[in-house]
Amino acid sequence: MKRLDRRSFLKCAAAAGAGVLGAPCPEAQARTRPAPAPERGGVLVDTTVCIGCRGCEWACKEAHGLPTPPRQAYEDATPFERLRRPDAGALTVVNRTAGAGPGGLPAFVKAQCMHCDHPACVSACIVGALVKQDDGSVVWDTDRCIGCRYCMVACPFQVPAFEWKKALQPRIMKCDFCAPRRAEGKLPACVENCPVEALTYGPREELVRVARSRVKNHPERYAEAVYGEREVGGASWLYLSARDGAGIGLPALGPDPAPGVSESIQHGIFAYFVPPVALYSLLGLLMWDAKRPAGRDGEG
Amino acid sequence: MAHPHAPQPVQVRFLTPGVAVLLLLAAAGLAVVAARVFLGIGAVTNLSDQYPWGLWIGVDVAGGVALAAGGFTTAALGHVMHRERYHALVRPALLTAMLGYTFVAMGVCIDIGRWYYIWHPIFMWNGNSALFEVGICVTIYLNVLYIEFLPVVTERFIGRVDLPGALSRLNGFVDRGLRLLERGLSSTMSFFIIAGIVLSTLHQSSLGTLMVIAGPKMHPLWQTPVLPLLFLLSAISVGFPMVILESLLASRSLGLEPEMDLLSRIGRMTAPLLGVYLAFKLGDMFIRETFVHLARLDFPAVMFMVEVFFGIVVPLRLFLSEEARRSKAGLFTAAALAVGGVLLNRVNNFIVAYTPPFSFGRYVPSPGEVVVTVGFVSLLVLLYRAAVLVFPVISLPSRPRAPRTKYAVRG
Ligand code: SF4
Ligand code: SF4
Asked: Does the pLDDT value for residue A197 go beyond 80?
């Protein structure tokens, strides 16, 4: 009931918005977004297996040429004392949520770009610097980016980071799903380095099946939902956990693709330039009419 | 030209104590801009990966665009409806819009990380992006505003071209050029005026679409699919109050009598516009049942109530009152509240409402960000003052027309 109300409200809203601008918008509803490539890759993160060794953090920095302390330094557990987010110096970080793992143990949750199937960042980027590729990765193009940071505002998982300290060529920093490594036939660096196989790399649709069967075979170990399967229209990265997404510190999100509403408004207003042109003609007519001697402001 | 109220340059001194203060503020702002260019955004702002947009986007860009709406609303009234008596208001509003959008562009330039790539959107398109649409529309509109202002420039200089020294041989040539330009402009101006209005409705509403994609990262009191409509309605309703405000302020600072009759007339027209905006704002709240969030009385709830009550309800009541409209104080209060209300709405939408899932403390603008914003506003006021001293922008009904020769003396 609630849902229905919201949906019809959205439709009215988009129609009203376009109506104000002079014309109805049949195209707004008709457009469909491109389906993600069926063979796109993904990673299944099993947080119940992860031991919090932070090897993935080290491997990621090594693979992306980011400064990092030696591997042994990652045995230090103090970073777990506070919540961390990926930033310009670390494209992935592991957080610990007390009591959220199987049997009341802590859950270790790796965070990085989810490589959404309908990425908000790609829809938002003013110059199209972000692209969802057929291999599943969402990648960023430094030759286009103007540094407006709209992608950061748009991302529902709050992932892209910015190089705030750089005066020239500051970059948007986020996980690139090791697209260059994978093109050479290698595994993503984090997957390759995980000592306990908490990370499984493979075709995304197959990973969904793997995840579902693990949930089915071990209902005592896993929460029902596979995080990333449906959130904001689905993502290439998927999470299995003892509690649902919110329980292990992931944002609670609905199943509608994040860019859906804004894109239909956008296309409603522009619908093949019909509304602007209609408004233009209307104003032109009004102006012409008002300028005829009879139409003049009598008191003026 | 033979019109009794023809606009003319105002004849007062440029430098006053107030102007000196503005010059200092502007200089301070530019100094921080220099620091931002050489040291990066992080060095002067409190922006972070959690709060990527702040004061500059909320006030300098979104606020600036909204408050420059006087340009297209008076153009619609004066040119499209062709109400000649309001023509006295069109040029000052046009000047404000032109300067306002220039500063919006400057605000964008310092806020984006790679200011030297500001031209990229012209060649690299993403039709799905609301920001792309805003950027393109604002760019075109800025040029349209400059073109709309050109007749003021030709009017000022035709017959009075007086180049110094050896260049004076070119006087006749430049003058002929200006006359040619004027003829071309006057036959095509309608095209630009209507284009300006269409472009304004487009980007004023797309500015509202900007935050729609932030989805649940935006407080439900403001996050709604009708945001573009609310942005457009608020821009339309703030156009006339902005003209009133700037007209009262300018006439006071330049020692002129404001056109009270005209101002109270557009004040009366503002009331229904504010009423429509209020109706949609409240209607949206009731349909989405977001009023439950008001009961929490937390910071966003209070900001929302301040915005609606002092920014819409009170000025609406004042604009409806004949008595308030007749007095300078009443009109000033009403206009200032309406302008403040829309400005607060933009701040609320872009800053207060933004609540990311992972936050390490609220965003509060840094002193550097505030100094830049204040400096830009000061610079804008200074340029406005300089422009009305040089160009025929303001109509002076209560003064005898200055003799022609005086123009030639001015520099
Ligand atoms: S998680 Fe964010 S940055 Fe990554 S693809 Fe999705 S929207 Fe883009
Ligand atoms: S910061 Fe760069 S990548 Fe992000 S939206 Fe702006 S131009 Fe696109």
From this structure: yes
Please answer yes or no on whether A124 and B226 come within 8 Å at the CB atom.
no
A60: domain CATH number is 3.30.70.20
Strands (E), A133-228: 138-140, 161-162, 172-173, 199-203
Distance in Å, alpha carbon of B175 to nearest chain A alpha carbon: 30
Strands A237-240 and A41-46: parallel
Is residue B408 in some structural domain?
no
> Which is the closest atom of ligand 1 to the Cα of A235?
6
Domain assignment of residue A99, given as a range: 41-248
Range of the domain at B197: 5-357+366-398
Q: What is the A249 CA–ligand 1 centroid distance (Å)?
A: 17
- Predicted local distance difference test score (pLDDT) of residue B276: 97
Mean pLDDT lowest among A71-80, A186-195, A289-298, B271-280: A289-298
Residue of B nearest to A294 (CA): B82
Q: Which residues of B touch A16 (CB under 8 A)?
A: 226, 229
Assigned token pair, B54:
């702040």
| Tokens 């509003």, located at residue | B93
DSSP A122: H
**Assembly ipTM:** 0.90
CATH number at residue B97: 1.20.1630.10
CA nearest ligand 2 atom 7, residue? A145
B85/A contact by beta carbon, under 8 A:
yes
Give every CB contact of residue B13 below 8 A, 6+ residues apart in sequence. none
Q: Is the pLDDT of residue B4 over 60?
A: no
Residue at B256 is within a domain: yes
| Residue A13 pLDDT greater than 70, yes or no | no
Rounded Cα gap, residues B308 and B286, in angstroms: 14
Q: Residue A2: pLDDT band by 50, 70, 90 thresholds?
A: very low
| pLDDT recorded at residue A147 | 96
- Facing residue for B126 by CB, picked from A17, A126, A147: A126
Smallest Cβ–Cβ distance between A297 and the set B84, B133, B210 belongs to B84
Helix ranges, B348-392 (H): 367-390
Mean pLDDT of chain A: 86
pLDDT, residue B33, reads 97
pTM: 0.89
In-domain check, residue B404: no
Structural contact between residues B48 and B363, judged by C-beta atoms closer than 8 angstroms: yes
Expressed in angstroms and rounded, the spacing between residue A118 Cα and the centre of ligand 2 is 17
In a domain, A206, yes or no: yes
B198 contact residues in A (CB cutoff 8 A):
276, 279-280, 283
- d(CA A148, CA A97) in angstroms, rounded, equals 33
Say which residues have a Cβ less than 8 Å from residue B16's Cβ, sequence separation at least 6.
Answer: none
Domain count for chain B? 1
Least Cα separation, residue B398 to chain A (angstroms): 18
The domain tally of chain A equals 1
pLDDT band of A300, cuts 50, 70, 90: very low
- Give B 110-129 residues with CB within 8 A of chain A: 111-114, 117-118, 120-121, 124-129
Q: How far is the CA of A152 from the centre of ligand 1 (A)?
A: 9
